[in-house]
Fold these 3 entries.
Entry 1:
Amino acid sequence: MFKYVELCVDLRKGRFAKDGLIQYRIICQQVNVSSLEEVIKHFMHLSTEKAEQARTQAQALEEALDVDDLEADKRPEDLMLSYVSGEKGRDRSDREVVTPWFKFLWETYRTVLEILRNNSKLEALYAMTAHRAFQFCKQYKRTTEFRRLCEIIRNHLANLNKYRDQRDRPDLTAPESLQLYLDTRFEQLKIATELELWQEAFRSVEDIHGLMCMVKKTPKPSLMVVYYAKLTEIFWISASHLNHAYAWFKLFSLQKSFNRNLSQKDLQLIASSVVLAALSVSPYNQTHAASHAEIENEKERNWRMANLIGFNLDLKIDRGDVLSRSALLSELVTKGVLSCATQEVKDLFHLLEHEFLPLDLAVKIQPLLTRISKLGGRLASASSVPEVQLSQYVPALEKLGTLRLLQQVSRVYQSMKIDHLSRMIPFSDFSVVEKIYVDAVKHNFIAMKVDHMKGVMMFGNMGLESDGLKDHLTNFAESLNKTRAMVYPPPERASRLGEILPSLAETVEREHKRLLARKSIIERRKEEQERQLLEMEREEESRRLMQQKITEEAEAKRLATESELRKKQRLLKEIEEKELEEAQQLLQDVSKKKKGKKPLLDGEKVTKQTLLDMAVHEQIKEREEKEKKLTKLSKTMDHLERAKREESAPLIEAAYQQRLLEESVLHEREQQLEIELSQQRHEGDLKEKNRLVRMLGNKTIFQERVVHRRQAEFERRRAEREEQISRMIQARKLEREAMRKKIFYVRSEEERLKKLQVEEEARKREEAERRRREEAERKAKLDEIAEKQRQRERELDEKAERQKRELLARPGIEPRPIEPVVPAPAAPIAVAAPAPGKYVPRHLRQGVPAGPAAEPRGVRPDDRPTLSNDRWRSDRSDERRPPAFGAGSKSTWSSSRPR
């Protein structure tokens, strides 16, 4: 099998290697698992070695000096290839030499993991292969392969849970198996964070949590430290500051409880990180004004994060475990985390959470942030915790300080200059402050407006949801009820008994209803209890039937298993008998080949395997004899060839000397011929030179004429070009001037129209306000006239009633009709006073008295006129009043309410 694996590796036949290993696993699974383990280790060792050799070869090719001409930069072939492909030499060598072997190594890891998956006997080898695959991805920065590897391992675990009736299935409840799976997941988490694959890192965290939820066990504290350390990095990268702070808090608790080697300095640094991480959380809710679906999704996400951070192995969602900034800060104070932090962190916490310094907050925060940014370093007594740098929290703390300052300033001031506010925040520009307060206003943390034209920031309340305005309708209704009670006071009750009796009847009725409701509740509870009992009995019966069904199925399965076992035993017996017959036949064949020689002793047990071993032994003996004959023949041929060469050596030397003489004579003859040809060519060249010397003057004259003509043409074209450029520059200047004038005119016209529009709107508002004020004054005057008219009518009615009682009280005097008393009008037009709700022309208002009438006796000074649109009291009460005794005419008062 080793030779087969070596051939597959040399030929890079990953498919054949996989098929062979699968077949070998089937053979060795129940007999010799260690053999399969050794073969797989050898296979991975060969693949890794070949990949390293290819990488070394590529580096050697890159570094080798393979240039023939040292004066030339590159060969023509290299230049053409670089222009066509665009690759460098190293890239091409990697693609041609290294990449195929890396692909084969990656296929090797996948093949081994696929063969070893869900096998309890090879769990350690599976974990070792996964670790080596992780290191391969880390060493060569193979992010895509790392994602695929994580998905492969995740699918293996899912299949392990899905198919629970597999043979040789690993038992996750066993401590050894669980530890191997946990080590693999934690290695996956570490490599994911080192490769900065944060999404895969978070999925690895979920894998660890899901694995622990399956077995209902909590890992060791050393592993939990790694878990929370990686969670802090993941949450910080994802800008989830609240979860980052909770992860730091859990990490602090673990280190303080289980790390006995933790020094005071390291504990102080971790505590400072926890406090600063908690302060970095945004103080307002990010889901303000979000839709219902977004809020529900955010709740679900927060519950998931709470389960991951709290490592809750119960998958049921607990609404009480939702994380918040205020709960975290209070927990830090109560559990003493704040007391373990440095003094700078304590002072910063006190300033940001408890102090009210609207003018000096940023100035006091800045030196603390400067000192905090210099703190940090590697923890000597906590190797699993990454390097702590408190400077990463400085931007978030500056944002928090800005928010606290704006919040405190908004409580004290109504407006503030932007320049003054910028000076109050020395560590941030106003553009950054502007982004911060826009986000805070968006999430309803503060209420403010900015007028950039005036350079002013205006602070206000929190809108309609503030304490002063959210109950304004209720307060308005209460005020109206009080006003109505003052205008129309309730009549005084006659006696104490009259007050008690209505309330007594109401109390009896209310108590009767309460008793009836209690009776109905009791009956409903009884019915609910009976229904629950019936439901429990029904469930118990269904459970009993289900258990009975499961028992029957188990019995049927047991019987089927026994039948199948008997069938297999029968088949095995038949196979053994057949093998015994074949062994006897082979024994007879061997006896015939040996010509009567008995290959086995009498009484020895004859099996098919024994005969096969004998046949193999005979074949080996024949092969050895053939090899001896070939060795002897090769020695004979060697002696013969050596003798032939010794005889031919002098003949070869004589032929070589003869060849040298012939070649020297030929060389001298060819050299003499070349000298004669060179002398003839030189004489011909001299004659041609003498013939062409006569034309040298004509050539010079022609050359000067052409140069002068081209120089004149060049000067002419340059002058034309400069003139054209000057014209274009002048035209563009005129065009820009016209455009500036047009823009100025358009802006001036827009400002003028806007100013006219603003003035027109102000005039309209003033006109509407004036009309509203005049209408209110007119209504007040009409109400006053109506009240005076009603007062006079009441006085006349009282006077008539008093006269009637006096006449009836006199004995012996017959009553006589009393003339209707008509009051003397104060003015001719007063009798015909119109209703208070109607319009009175100006020429009819001249007779109305300017001064108020005398205040009648018995009228309270706080009585107010009744409005015509009073919804609680109808104006028809005056019409239902009985007329005065002897009055012959109706009152001139009428209701203005439509009938």
Entry 2:
Amino acid sequence: MSVEPHSTAALHNEGHFVIPGTGKKRLSLKLGFSFFLFGLINNVLYVIILSAALDLVPPSTPKGIIAFCNIAPALIVKLGWPYFLKGRIRYARRIVACCTLSFIGMLVVAFHESLYSRLLGICFASFSSGLGEMTFLQLSTTYSRSVGGRSVGYFASGTGAAGIVGAFMWWELRGLGVSTGVGISAILPFILPLAYFFLLPRPAAFMHQSSSTSYTLVPADDLETEIDDDLSAQDDVESRVEPKVTVRLSAADKWRLVKPMLLKYMLPLFCVYTLEYTINQGIAPTLLFPVPSHGLLSKIIHSTRDYYPLWQLVYQTTVFFSRSSISLGLKTLPAHLLPAPAIIQFVILLLLVFESAVGLLPEDREAGSIFLIFILISIEGVCGGLAYVNVFYCINQEQPDPASTHNPDVIKQEREFKIGSIGFADSSGILLASILAVPTEMELCRAQVARGKYLCQGL
């Protein structure tokens, strides 16, 4: 394969090669914005549905059924789709399908008042969200590793922003009523195919361009790495153009790829999601105090029901910033430290359980307890966000199996499968947490009542 002379380095200056800079900056901005939009729009409907749970079902219906319908279909997709689907991924068709399913699901939720119809619509949207997340992460592997790693970072940042944007959107839309508010949100999925077809640069666009008015000095060693990455992307592009024998990963191939990831990636991600959603759904609702009469908190907290949204806002904000760590240029966690966020979250869970049931500080120091909870939930959000973005980044950056290096099509499918197969770890953790959260909340409320604190009974 030939590479144009100037792209490998016609210019040389004291161990540095000169490569174009302006064009790649523009492409990087378009890539980053595209993947940010993919993460934001794909996850924002999930957040809107959870935020609207009180308005979507009758008061007598357990709100947990909304959470279940909002996660179970996504789990089914992540658990089954990568393992049973064979052959080449058709990204355009998948993204259009995700858009269509989300649109139909939200319309069903908006314009059908029947409980079962709304639950069906939520299941459609959940199925689409699960398929979309898997698809966009797999799409990042079609780029060279340097570009693909940034794509994962921007996508994770978008998913983090979805928590804040979705909650804010529903806060603004709920005044219009369920039908109008959810109906307006149904147009959001159309951003996905628009961004894919008209904004996202294709992998071939990241080859060093032949003409540019601005050049950047790059060390020779770094350039060799970039060229290797770009050549792998070039091979990927050409493999899609040249007619070749169809390649399909067998069940044995997939098990060979999954086995090393079980303890290295899946278990840490599963533990992080189980712990943080148990905290958010089972412990945080019991972290209640009397309404403050003075100070900054008195302007935010007007009833005991305001504490839970406050904890969720703190969590969502810190998740957003930690999921944005790679796109902000911060260093990634090394693979051997991926279990650390789960260990820290386990300690936080124990501390918050103790605070809820017994109280870490005396009852006359409520301000200190509120500040302590604020710090602990902030650390919880940081750990959750770091676990998510770093696990998927590490998978994206893994080197191909030496046995597969002779076939670019096999390498491509293996990279897509590995990053797609990991997603069921987080969804299964959320599902387990939703089961654990109900008895956890009930037992903590009983413990509070036993020591004379009755706030949880008044919600």
Entry 3:
Amino acid sequence: MAESAVKSAAEWLGKLAVEEVKYLYGVRDKVEELQAELEWMQCFLSDADARRHKDALIRKWVSQIKELAYDAEDVIEKFMLRVFNKDKHRSLFTFATLKWFCCLAGDATALHEIGSNIDSLTAKISKLSSRLQTYGVKTTYGEPASTSATQVRTQELRRTYSHIEEEFVIGLEGDILELSNKLVNDHHHKMVAISGMGGLGKTTLARKVYHHDSVRGHFLGFAWAHISQQFQMRSVILGILLDLIPNNDKQRRDKVQGLQDGQLHGELYQMLKEKSYLVVLDDVWTTEDWNRLQAAFPINDDQGIASKVVLTTRNAHIVAALGELVLYHEPQLLDIETSWKLLQKKAFPVAIAKDAIDPYLVQLGKKMLEHCNGLPLAIVVLGGVLANKRTSEDWQNVLDNIHSYFGGDGLYNQSYNRVYDVLGMSYYDLPYHLKPCFLHLGNFPEDFEIPVDKLYRMWMAEGIVAVDGMALGGKSSEEVAEGYLNELVEKRMVQAAKVTSKGKVKTCHLHDLIRDVSMAIGREENFVSVIDHIHGQQSDDEPAPMLNNERLRRLTVYVGQDMKRSLSSSLSRNAPNLRSLLFFQVHETKEESTEFIKDICNEHQLLRVLELEGFNIRGDLPQKVGNLIYLRYLNLNGTHVTSLPSSIGNLMCLETLDLRVSCVVIKLPNLLWRLKRLRHLYFPSRILSQEVSERQGYEIENDEMLRLDGLGFLETLEDVDIDRVEVKGLLGLRKMRKLSASCVCNRESLVPFLNSPSIKRLSLKISGSIFSQDPMMLSNCESLRNLDIDNAITVQLRPEMFPTSLVYLGFWYTRLRQDPMPILEHRLPQLKNLSLHIAHSLSHMVCSAAGFPEVTYLAIDGLFSLVEWRMEQGAMPKLRSMEIYNSPIRKLPDALPKGMSITCCPCVPGIERFGTCPHFNDKLPVDTAEYYESD
């Protein structure tokens, strides 16, 4: 942990010394000396960090080193901020200006002050280095394993994508069969309650039953709702309803979304009475939570209701309150032999014959399992620790140290003490570069599904992952971050939630117990502080929470009612050095927060990360946001911000800017080109349909063309409007890795992007009118991965119209003159997703053998004349998910691959062969959205 902080500080100071020399005039030599001292300190920290949990003195020193690294950043950044604030009203800032500033009356001592502060810090760090050497802490200077490049290469060699393997269910096989049978054949019990302690496998059991073949063939519809401690009543009930209503039933879906909260309960209750559905309520925490939910579920109605509810909880009081119509089931802790079988699967990823394992390892393993108490989660995590340890000495060392992590600290519930020993050991077994990654995950709310793209951007902004390509062994920052996350998944510290067909994690989350460990260590390390406005931590009579920590660097707020009153005053007074501020809208609130954001921008000018997704900000973003000159990450996704101020151009350190706001259009000053370090820029999505107003996405002041020239580091640009951007500047962005663009009318502006050698992955939404003007315009664009063609025009298809690189192809409101299948099936060998929406009026469609070899998802919607669909054996061999709406197909083809998931409305004859719900969507284990963001 400390090594990460020191490394980040040293790199930051080095960058400032080179790039911001004008700001550091007169003290550059001292900054470089401080940087050198920090770099020397890194040589001792790997050994010190590994020994800190065993030795209180080393633990104290490591903590002091980390704080000194933070102090070094504070001293330099506050000085530079002082210069900036003094000079920001001038039209031109020059080297001479800074010398003039430093000689002003009243400011002549500025350089002396910063020089003295740096000297003091350098002396303290040098003294601590000497203490560590005297105490026998070893230097790792020059060791190959300490270099970032070697770490990256090792991660690449070790990467096995174990997160895409089927989840082991050792010890639960009998439970799965028993509950599946009860759900199908037990007509008395309307609910199954799976109860037990955290980490017992309740959710795993529920998921296996939910997907069991006999269950899938019995119920007509399925919905899964994760409750958690921060659940929002409306979101849960509405989410279940939308799972059970067909996607193409837009009228009904719109109706339920407009219902009041009380009406939603009644709507769901009636739906569950009318047809046979299965609903899972996962992780219900309190009896009060169930009392709020139960009015929507007819579990006490004896009128022959076929719907069933599965509930998982660790609270025995909920089970007692449910009544006799509920079947109670508690998975049992694993015995020692079953525990060993599970540990073998995790500790030895490659199958090894039973008699090939060293008997002494078996003995050591079973001794370690005594600390797991038969809890599957603890066994899985222990297996992650042992997975790369093969000698008896390694295993003995793990056993010897299993007590030393949390023992006696009183951090946790006593019933879990031995389990937390195992989980704590798994943290301290992590290499230093993974520890801050793991602790950072503790910021996110319980059961929060974390998008990995967001996570990687935050890690880079915080300095947890470097952004200097030379320090990463030639890897991009995203590749390094992805490697770190894969390591945490492999070590079972993080769970992959959504995974692409290529094995890449798209979203992830932490198990509750592991999150407890992350948060406890984060508090102990002063790595993070969380304020929760949901669980009664603040009431009307209580004072605002006192942060009282001038060293607080990161603060996370779970937003609830009266957040401003309880937080604003204490935040400004007691956290002057805050670098990261994250808000998560985990509770429904109408509290408007624009004024509060003004205070944040004024009081916390050292911020690097400001996460505001879903936060209730309306109207103009405050002008004071321009004070945050060190800001690297700004997320306005889901807010109601309608315009950015001109001061946005001051954010010269900004790396990620997410403008995917919830309003129809956001007004922008034409100053984004000034954000020279910007790497990821997201605009609001634009809909091309003729029924929607032309003004969408973004507007530039005075109707100018958007300037993006000069953004030399930009890698990701999403939803840019080609009709309203300066094309020449955009084409000059040589580091562009991913471009998503729309174009309605300006064909001349679009053409240069189709032939640009710098753009590696292109996604386009284009109007059919452009496409009809030049049908061959896309044929040689091999960077094109995703293509949407929109608007009701007539298109004459030819195979050579499309590049072979396409992964996704969608036709929307486009009248095709012929069956597209024979034309496309052998032209697009990489296509994975094909969507036809009100796309042609032919009566027949034919798919030939070996056609569409990679397609896994097919959507057919509004082909109102389609009655016959023929498919030869071997066509679409990898198809696993399909949706059919408003298309009167007489019969599903016999050659469709077996085992796939089909959704259709109205019913298509032949659906019964697939044992899937004929009317309703189900959550797929693999995210189909991957195909619109493919590599």
